[in-house]
Amino acid sequence: MSIDTLQLRRIAIDTYHENVAYMHRECGVYRAEGFQALSKIQISLNGIKILAVLNVVDDASIVQSGELGLSEQAFQQFNCVEGSMVTVNHAEPPKSMDAVRRKINGERLDRADFDSITDDIVESRYSKMEIAAFLVATGQNSLDRDELLYLTRAMLQSGDRIHWDEPLVADKHCIGGIPGNRTSMLVVPIVAAHGMLIPKTSSRAITSPAGTADTMEMLCEVNLSPTQLHDIVRRERGCLAWGGTARLAPVDDMLIAVERPLGIDSQGQMVASILSKKLAAGSTHLLVDIPVGPSAKVRQMRQALALRKLFEFVGDRLNLHLEVMITDGRQPIGRGIGPALEARDVMLVLQNDPEAPADLRQKALQLAGRIIEFDPDVRGGQGYAIARDILESGRACAKMNEIIQAQGPKPVDFSPGSLCHEVAAKSDGIVTEIDNLQMAKIARMAGAPMMKRAGVDLLKKLGSPVKKGEILYRIHAEFPADFNFAQNLAMQNDGYTLGSNAELLKPLITF
Amino acid sequence: MSIDTLQLRRIAIDTYHENVAYMHRECGVYRAEGFQALSKIQISLNGIKILAVLNVVDDASIVQSGELGLSEQAFQQFNCVEGSMVTVNHAEPPKSMDAVRRKINGERLDRADFDSITDDIVESRYSKMEIAAFLVATGQNSLDRDELLYLTRAMLQSGDRIHWDEPLVADKHCIGGIPGNRTSMLVVPIVAAHGMLIPKTSSRAITSPAGTADTMEMLCEVNLSPTQLHDIVRRERGCLAWGGTARLAPVDDMLIAVERPLGIDSQGQMVASILSKKLAAGSTHLLVDIPVGPSAKVRQMRQALALRKLFEFVGDRLNLHLEVMITDGRQPIGRGIGPALEARDVMLVLQNDPEAPADLRQKALQLAGRIIEFDPDVRGGQGYAIARDILESGRACAKMNEIIQAQGPKPVDFSPGSLCHEVAAKSDGIVTEIDNLQMAKIARMAGAPMMKRAGVDLLKKLGSPVKKGEILYRIHAEFPADFNFAQNLAMQNDGYTLGSNAELLKPLITF
């Protein structure tokens, strides 16, 4: 028989974005259908159809013959009770894989192709490996600008879209790769204090030692319901929340869930990812920060310019007012790397403390100034001065405190992990290079971002003269195992290069 | 803590080639390590390290806090008892993914790259999605001939290799796509009767309505242990066994397990797959059959020629005596499609029955003749006559019976499924086209190859004149659901085109 019914059973196994179905090896349906372990099956009940990967079970205490077990997320998709009778058959491969195969063969895809691909992805018809095939086929330079526009639009349409009903909804986004770069936590209070709407949602760190959400979480709650978020933004003009709960451009999340572990990314996919998310979040004006440096994501000025054009091309066609700022990505921003240390730096800047890291302050003011100039009432070139005035007057700090109170404050304690190792200069010289990637890796090894007080605290930055034995940075950890890992890593490569003034990395951009 | 230990528990879930580990959500290690569902973890015990995908469990009856559950295949890799203490930490991504990323970026890979990729794949360090990325990145024309040679060699070296200790070990392989094409079951007895060693192992059908192993299984056992296979080949000079048990070019199987569900294939990967498997099986001489036709895998003569060159290039450099035969792939071979019906056709040819399908007999003789000419004692051009003599004298049939007896005979019954639907011509005309893909699909819908007596029996072939209402073919099934599916499919598109003699598809090759 090619179709048959089984009794639904909920299996308390969390398989994340991947639906898994469990069937007993002795089950008649399994035998008759000629299913294989890992084959994809379609499960139907009351018109709802879901796809799942099949696991074959030999233990009747997990699932019995005549039952179909479903992992948590899969079960929830049916809105039903255990014991319901479901129909099971072979899943047809998603139709839009034809388009992916055409892309693999070097063809150009049209708008309808991208729409059907994102439809199939959002309906969970793609397996992880099919998504991987799509990503590799559309990676690097294999999408032209129009295809990228189609993809972005299709990703945007795949989920919900927030409407703020205001003419100007500002946002900023950095393409990442620079440790300590917590400018959003300064830009949001400055811009919101100016009165512009800036409902900032951020991700948690996945490959970096801290995301804005991880760092903000040192100060207050970041996991807000859509209603809470809405209320706070209306009242405070800004927020700094985790963006994980809303169903905005869900295809983007599903692509990232494959992209990240594969370690593949392409400029095209980055543009589609960022712009679809921002548009879904209701942004009308976006400032994109592209840091350039030898250990940044973008290493050459010409790459940064090409990326800027891509952002502009797609943004313009999707009716987003978009500006790109190419920034200095030669070294980490600020001093701290890791949630607690970065939160400390941010608060020092907001409090106008003389100890505040000047580079973080300067960059945040530049970015905030550009965003403030989105305001039609602000004269071109005046944004920076307005931003600086808001910061120096204490209004930014007050706004930050209001946002913290609104989101749900936490006790303030930025003390770093008690295990501390100091990394010293091996010779005299001036700091000519700091490797962003290595510093991020050391901070992660030390436990960041899971261990919020773990990380790296930089005492010397590019251009600093140092004597042999002088401390370059401190590693902080909470657990001995992490601590040892991080120390060993720093021993192999401390991430710093010392030399003469002539060897000092020149900024690739004038900032 | 970044490293910790858990007690091993066997979970009776079959996850096929993919290792799955189960950890309770409340487990300290899960929380401390910051694992995520679906992240890859490394599990170590007594120097054995395996990688697994993590599933998070909320049901302590499946796995408890402090325990690490492992799916069947994963558990077996440890050779240990339940309750052993294992160490768990984050899996590093496989190092060779760097090479895959370089390939995605358009670079050329060298021999060491392919060696490290196949090493990582065979050690299960690649997830399905990483394999998909590799396949797409190396698909189509993105491998040059030298890269293809490196890949083939690396795949060959990834597993065991059989040595027959004879100067001439013959084999044949068809690239597939033509229903009913069971020539191996004729070629093997003819060639073995000539005295040449031809230890033929075949696959079961995955996307086709019957593989040679499925069809041979109508006559005898095909699931032989390596020892049995060896003994039979020594005694009979040939066999027709299922190739699934040996560990020959295991990377090939792991690639195919991803390639098939994705529906992607490339000529390069096909060449690497076939040649690595044949060399691992100990073949010294190989005849490759490339059918060409509008609904065959290869649709143009120039594609067939390009593929031939690829086979020759790699075969020559791996010291395999290789010849390619480009054959007529315009329509199915023989009459039956499906294991029972194809076994019937084969036996009719072996028994020199006047009802035997002439095209199957003719093609098998051509192929067998070419293989016999691998024999240095046979004069060029004499192979066909020798093959025909072996067949007509009954020596081929006798050899087939010996092989059947050796492998373990089954009761002979080729009767097709009792549910039968006759598909009739809708008009007068001659058969000008038969769609291989559609006929295969109808046979599969009818239940083949799982239901051995299901399939399609063709009464008319290309060039046959038919009257309106005359029967073109019969659909046979064993179960009503299958039967309805197949009938509906044939109703939508019966796969036949009727027209005038002038419209008859001309063979793309002279055969």
Automatic annotation (TrEMBL), chains A, B:
Pfam families noted in UniProt: Glycos_trans_3N (PF02885), Glycos_transf_3 (PF00591), PYNP_C (PF07831)
Origin: domain of life: Bacteria
BP GO terms, sorted: pyrimidine nucleobase metabolic process; pyrimidine nucleoside metabolic process
Every Pyrimidine nucleoside phosphorylase C-terminal domain range: 430-497
Transmembrane residue ranges: none
Reactions performed catalytically: thymidine + phosphate = 2-deoxy-alpha-D-ribose 1-phosphate + thymine
Sorted UniProt keywords: Glycosyltransferase, Transferase
EC number: 2.4.2.4
Keyword Glycosyltransferase: yes
Top enzyme category: transferase
InterPro entries named among the record's database cross-references: Glycosyl_Trfase_fam3, Glycosyl_Trfase_fam3_N_dom, Glycosyl_Trfase_fam3_N_dom_sf, Nuc_phospho_transferase, PYNP-like_C_sf, PYNP_C, Pyrmidine_PPase_CS, Thym_Pase_Put
Coiled-coil segments: none
This protein's name: Putative thymidine phosphorylase
